[in-house]
Amino acid sequence: MKKLLLTLILPLLIYGQEQPKVGLVLSGGGAKGFAHIGVLKELDNLGIQIDYIGGTSMGAIIGGMYASGYSPEQIERIITDIDFLSVIQDNISREDKSYFEKAFLEKTAVSLPIKNGSIGLPLGLSKGQNVLNFLTELLAPVDAVDDFSKLPIPFFCVATDTETGEEVVLEKGSLPLALRASASFPSLLNPVEVENRLLMDGGVANNFPVDRMQEKGLDIIIGVNVQGTLLKREELSSVASLLSQIVNFQMYKKSAKQVKRLDIHIHPNINEYTVVSFDKKGEIVNEGVKSVKPYLKVLKELAKRQVNKKVRKEITYKEKQFLIDRIILKGNKYYTQDYILGKLRLKEGDSVSYRDISKKVNTLTASKNFQRIDYTLKKSFKGKKLEVVVKENDIKSFLSLGVHYDLLYKTGVLLNYNQKKILSSNDEISLDVVVGDDIRYDFQYFIDNGFLLSYGVSSRFNSFETDVLFNENNLNKINVDYRDFTNRIFGQTILNKRTAFGIGLEFKNLKISSDTFLTNNEETVFDSSNYVSSFAFLNIDTYNKSMFPTKGFLVNANFKWFMWSNRDNSLNDFANGSVGFNQYSQVDALFSFAKTFWEKFTFLNSYQFGATLGEEDSEIFDYRVGGYNQNYINNFIPFYGYDISSLTDQSFLKSEFHLRYQPFKKNYISFIANYGRVAKNVFRRGELLKDTKSGYGVGYGLETIIGPIELKYTWSPDHNDKFLLFNLGFWF
Questions:
Q1: Quick check: 216 and 23 in contact, CB under 8 A?
Q2: pLDDT tens digits, residue range 594-640?
Q3: What's the CA gap between 455 and 427, in Å, rounded?
Q4: Alpha helices, DSSP H, located in 373-443
Q5: How far apart, in Å, are the Cα atoms of 666 and each of 600, 703, 724?
Q6: CB 22 within 8 Å of CB 48
C-alpha cells in the first residue's frame, strides 16, 4: 500500500521541482551493507544523480568511496578482491613480525592483556590498523580534500562519542580516519580518536542518519536500510542473542522514526544474512539490485527531471611514488622520534607510495608498543606531509593460551606469559608452561639490540616417554622416560627480522631411565649426567606463514662442541660398556623452501643432515630418526614411514618432498615422500646412497584458530609397519 501511494504521490512532488536535488542515506549493517553496492549500480543505470551522500558504518565506507569518485562496479570489484575478515582481524604479515615473536610466540590461539596485575579483555577484537591502511590507500586520489563537502559528491558520516554516547557528525578532516571511526563496531574494532574525542561505530547513536540529511535541504531523500528486525521469542536462545536484542531496541526504534522522513525507502531482503556474512558478498549485492525494482517507475521519472546532470569522472587508484617532505609526529611520550622513524624506516626526503606507508606502519604495529597508530597524508609544497599520531601501549604483559595433542606428548595446555621492558626499553621475556600428560616449560629472556650484538638466556625442561632403540642388536625397543633440563646463555645479531646468527654456552642435565628394561621392574638409568657445551647457530626464516607456508625458505644450521661431562662410568652405554668422556662435536643443518604454483598447489622441499666429529663414547646423543613431530628436541629427527627413534647412529642424511593441494580455503591435502640414510659416517666415500631408507605419506590438514589439525597415514616399503598420525593445535 505504501509503495502504491509513493508511486502516485512522489511524481507530483518531482514535477514540482525544476532540478530536484537528491540525497542518499546508507545505513550501517556490517556485511549486509554490501547491498548498498547493488542499489548504487541500479541508481547509476537509471541515470539518478546523487547530490549528497550520508552514511553510518559500512554505509559510510560504501558511501565515502562513491562520493570520492569510485563507480559501483569499481566498488564491487574492490570488495570482491579483499579478504574482509583478514583486514578486520589485523593480520600482520609474518615478515613484519620480530624475530623473537616468530621464534617463540607463534603457538597460541588467544592472547589477553594484563594490566595492574589483572587479566583483562581488549577493547576490540582488532585495533583496526589494517582497516585504516586499506582506506588510506583506497582514498589516495582525494587525500587533498579535508572538507567532505568538496568531494565529487558532498558527503558526511556519523560516529558515536564513547564517553557521552552523543552522535558525532563527521564532515571535515581525514576521510579515511572518519570512515574508520564510523565503522568501529563495538567489540570488533577499537575506538578511534578524532579531534580529541574517542569515537566508535555511529550505529550506536544514529544508524540511519536521515535527519542529518534533511538538514542539508535536499528535495528528495532516498534511504537504503540494511538493518534487520528484532528477534522473535524462539530466536532468543543464547546470551549473545539476548544482548544483541537489547542493543538493537533503541537502534531500531530510532531508525523507524527515520524511515518516516524518507521519500523513497529501499529495504533489501537480506534477513538471512548477518553483519559478518563477508563470504556472501555476491549474494548480498544481488539482493541490493533486486530491491530497487519496485521503485523503477518513480526513479525513472526522477531521472528525467534531473536535466542538468554533472559529468561524473571516475577515479582509479594507481600505485605511484611521491616525496615525503615533512614528517610530524604526535602522541609519543616514552618512545623517541628516532625510535619510531627508525622502526618505520622513513625519513624526510624519502620517495614512497601509499602501499609502502602501509607496510611501514604495519612494521611499527608489529612491535606491539603502540595501542593505535593514526596517520594522514596531505599535499605540501614539494610532495606530501605525513602526520603520524600514536598512542603508546601501556599494556606490557600478555597471557596467551594454546592447546595441543600429538601421539608423543599427548595432551597439553599451554600458558604463555610475555612481557616487554622488564629491565630495559628493549628487553622481553617469554615463559611457556605446558600442563598435561607431560609437564614442560620453556623460558626465554632476550635483549634486542637489532643489528648490534643482542643477548639472551634461556631455560627449558622437557620430558616424555617413548620406545627408544639404543642399540640395533637389541631385538626390542625399550620404553624410556626421557627428561631434559637445558640452560643457555648466548649472544646474537639479527638482520631484517629474518636472520639470526649467534654463539653461546649450554648446560644440560639429561636423565634417561626405564622401568621395563629389567624383569623386576626396577629403574634402570641409562644416563643421568651434566653436559657443558659451546654452540653456534644460524637461523633464516622467510616463510610467509608459520603453518602451511606457501612461499619462502628456512635455514637452521647448528654446531655444538661437547666440552665436559660428569657422566659416571657405570651409567655409560649399557650396550657396549664404553668408559670415560671424550670431547667431540656435532654439526647439523636444515634447508627447506616452499613454492606455490597454479594457485592451489604448493611444493615444499627440504634437505637435512647431521654428523658427529670426533669419537663419541656413548649412544646418548646419537641421531634418532623416525616419527613425525615438529616439536622434537635434541637429536630426534622426524622421518615419515618409521616410528620414533627407529634409525639411530652418529650421522644422517635426509631429503623430503611434499606436494600440498588446497581444494578450498584453509583445507589441505598432502602427498609426502622422504628418503634418508643413517650410519656412523654417511659421507664415507662410495657409500653415500648405501642402504637408503624411504617413507611415504598422505594426509589432510585444516588451518584453524588453535593451529593446524592434521591426519596422516604413513608407510615404508622397507618394512610392514603402517602408522596413522594425528596432531591438533600449534606445535609446542
A1: yes
A2: 999 999 999 999 999 999 999 877 788 999 999 999 999 999 999 99
A3: 9
A4: none
A5: 11, 5, 22
A6: yes
Q: What SS3 class is residue 572? A: coil
Q: What is the Cβ-side half-sphere exposure of residue 593, based on CA atoms within 13 angstroms?
A: 3
pLDDT of residue 400: 94
Condensed to tens digits (0 to 9), the pLDDT of residues 556-591 reads 999 999 999 987 554 444 344 444 678 999 999 999
Domain spanning 322-392: CATH superfamily: membrane protein fhac (3.10.20.310)
Residue 411 near residue 405 (C-beta atoms within 8 A): yes
pLDDT number for residue 574: 38
pTM of the shown model: 0.77
Q: Confirm or reject CATH 3.40.1090.10 for domain 2-8+21-90+127-300, answering yes or no.
A: yes
Given a contact cutoff of 8 angstroms between Cβ atoms, the answer to whether 115 and 398 are in contact is no
Domain ranges for the chain: 2-8+21-90+127-300, 322-392, 450-728
Whether 201 is catalytic: yes
Report the CATH architecture of 450-728: Beta Barrel (2.40)
Catalytic residue of the set 51, 90, 143, 201: 201
H-helix or E-strand spanning residue 80: helix 72-81
Assign 4 a pLDDT band (cuts: 50, 70, 90): very low
Catalytic residue among 27, 57, 98, 565: 57
Q: Which three cell numbers stand for residue 662?
A: 588446497
Q: Say whether 397 is catalytic.
A: no
